[in-house]
Each structure stands twice: as structure tokens, then as C-alpha cells.
Design a protein that fits this description.
Length: 298
Amino acid sequence: MLQAPMDLTAMAEALSRSADYRVLRRLMPRATCQPTIGQDCRTGILLDTETTGLDHAKDEIIELGMIKFDYTPDGRIVGVRDTFSAFNEPSAPIAPEVTALTGITDDLVAGHRFNDAAVTAFVEGAVIVIAHNSGFDRKFVERYWPMFAHNAWGCSMSEIDCRKHGFAGSQLGYLLNGAGYFHQAHRAVDDCHALLEILDFKLPPTGAPALAVLLDTARRKTVRIWAEQSPFELKDSLKRRGYRWSDGTDGRPKSWYIDVCETALEDELAFLKAEIYLRDVEPRLQTLTAFTRFSNRV
């Protein structure tokens, strides 16, 4: 006698109600839809790139993925407007280690070129561009398409405190699992679909969507403090404090630096005075907003 097929959905629901099991569902891309008439919505872009290397000044983008989506001012995702996915053949063969990391081969990108007009048209009207590592992606896309320099940017990796909300790390796949999904990413746009679900996930303990937390952080001003001419022997103290090193090759100061919120500025200056310089100091300061943060122009 043939057995009736298992109702996998019912089984998953039953397991999810037990404290002894966690259920991960395969991520299915959301269908596109038209904007909701009469609803207060804004438009955002999720973006991901694959490149031939880490140097934004000389390495090349070989794949660009984007999702255009609508959201409410309080950070609720309304729907997906459109998706964009394109390859680009670089000027030199793709290194084996890049292929191993991205799955992109020379044959896959052969003959492909980015359509600059299509990229520009896709991004037009967006209030914010969000990437999971905007400090990497923004520098690359600004070099290719200068209009990205005029957008506000947000970063889902650095502008959401994952540990505060119960996550042990900030890797995209780990966060997606935490939101209850898994995906077998092959293309940059697949990671954008994953990021969409992460941003729509309601974070404990407040229940606010992750996008709302990101937007709140992105809207705040921060201050970059340059600890120029700090004593070499105190570099470990600066590293422990969260300072990063700029080697000066990209036109920025050759110096340790840190980004802090405006309310933490006085405490940071006091630390430099008491622990690093041992005297009054007026370091170079730069005010950053979502329009300048993560950009190579700063």
C-alpha cells in the first residue's frame, strides 16, 4: 500500500513549536510587485559585488547584483520592485583563488560588459544603498559609477550590533540562519535576496526589524578621529581601543584612526590625552554622515 506523502510544511511547523528543534527554510526570492499606492514608502537598493581582488583602486568588479525595494520610514519592508544581475569580463584572467571563492570563471564572464546606463537607471530614485560590507563595496562602485557617491549608504555588517541582538557573528550566511533560512548562493544577487530577509527579521528583544536599527544608526553623525604621530610603542593600545591603521597610500593620513558617535567624542579625546599623547591634543577630526561614510573620498 502506498503511503500518503508527508506534509513537510506541517512537520516543519510542528518542529518549530518545540524548544528542542530549529527549522531552517530554503530561501525563496520574493516576487517583484508594483509600489503600493497611497502608502508612505521610500526606495532602497541592496547591493553586492564580486571583484578580482581587494584593492578598490586597481582591481575590477566582475559581478554586480542589486535589489530595488520599498520600505516605510520606520523600517518595514513593503516589497521588491526589481532585481539586477550582470557580469563583467576583466582585463586579465581571473585568479584561481578568486574563482575558488566566488565560483566565477573566465568562461562565465567572457564577452560580458556592464551596461552603465542600465546601472544608473536602476539606482535612480533610491534613498539609500545598503551592502553587507559597504566599506568594501562602496569604494568599488563609486569608481565605476560616480552617481553612487551622491547616495546615502548603510552597512548591515557594521551598523547593526549583531552581538547585542544575540548573534555570535556578522557573516551573511550566519545571520540568514538566525533569521530562519538557508541559501546556496551562486550569484551576487542571491546574497542580496539573503540580505533582504535579514533586514526584514525582527530582532530580539524589541521586535523591531533589522532595517529599522540600521536606518537609525545610518542617520546619525559620527566623527573620525585621526591619532596622527602617536607613539609607535602604543599601537597595541590603540588597536585594543578599536583604532584602525591607514597607510596613507590612498591620500588619507598615514595614521591610526577611529570612528565614534558624537556623544563619545569627549571621552575619546580624553583617552588620547591621558593614555597616548600625555598632553593636551587637538587631533584632526572629520564629521561623517550616511552620504560620506564608507566612501574613499573620506
